[in-house]
Amino acid sequence: MRLPRSTPPTHAIALVLAGFATVLAAPAARASESKSGEAVYEQVCKACHATGEAGAPRFGDRAAWKPLIAEGQAMLFRASIRGIRKMPARGGRPDLADVEVKRAVVYMANAAGAKWTEPAR
User: Fold this and answer.
1) Which domains does the chain have, with CATH numbers?
2) Cα gap 28→33, rounded to integer Å
3) How many CA atoms lie within 13 A of 31 on its CB side?
4) Coil, strand or helix: which one is 102?
5) pLDDT tens digits along 30-49
6) pLDDT digits (tens, 9 = 90+) for 79-111
7) Got the DSSP string for 3-60?
């Protein structure tokens, strides 16, 4: 944010602090708005996992998901949150909470034969 030179220092500090307060309050407001795995898949993951774009395992493709499911939830959660190969961290949506990403992973894995429970908040 660029302020005019005539802005008093105390006013500038107040504006900066107000911005931080907004950023810090945002996660608390989102906590009750947590998305389901299906919603995250539809909004984010579907772009690649519906078509197999960039080597992504296609939604519902049991053969493609079988070795991933065998590696377990912890590995898939970690890879989807951090990113792996051509998949960016959190599917390219840094605003997604860990639990939302995990729910999407469970949703996709279950569509391919896993029997995992979607994580609660």
Assistant:
1) 1-33 (no CATH), 35-121 (1.10.760.10)
2) 10
3) 6
4) helix
5) 545 789 999 999 999 999 99
6) 999 999 999 999 999 999 999 999 999 999 999
7) --TTS-HHHHHHHHHHHHHHHHHHHHHHGGGPPPHHHHIIIIIHHHHTTTGGGPPPTT
